[in-house]
Amino acid sequence: MPYLGSEDALKELKRALSNPHVQADRLRYRNVILRVIRHMTQGMNVSGVFMEMVKASATVDIVQKKLVYLYMCTYAPLKTDLALLAINTLCKDCSDPSPMVRGLALRSMCSLRFGSCLIWS
């Protein structure tokens, strides 16, 4: 894959996260999420895919949930208007039958760091 500038890479990640063919293949979808996390840890601003990452949290794959929750906790203070969707998702996962999902959701909800999240959580 050729080197992409940050805007081109963000557009490509957004397109890949929204692609229904990629979403149908669990491994490919997880790899796209891993690329988002990789860019995030390298210092690139990937807050533009916040909505797609919130949608990606609706899965039964625990590894994918962990990656998405890491992303949401990092970028929720920057996207406070969309962070309410993340809080909604985390609240829904707090009532999941799996204790691992419940614990992960609760831990992620407690690590959100922005002012208006206390009202909603």
What does this structure look like?
It is a peripheral membrane protein. It is found in: Endomembrane system. Belongs to the adaptor complexes large subunit family. This is Clathrin/coatomer adaptor adaptin-like N-terminal domain-containing protein. The chain has 121 residues and is mostly helical. It has 8 helices and no strands.
Gap between N and C termini: 41 Å
Shape: globular
H/E element sequence:
HHHHHHHH
Kindly estimate the percentage of residues that lie in beta strands according to DSSP. under 5%
**Regions with pLDDT < 50 over 5+ consecutive residues?**
none
Counted beta strands: 0
Give the fraction of residues assigned to helices: over 70%
Keywords: Membrane, Protein transport, Transport
Pfam family, one: Adaptin_N
Domain Clathrin/coatomer adaptor adaptin-like N-terminal: 10-113
Membrane topology: Peripheral membrane protein
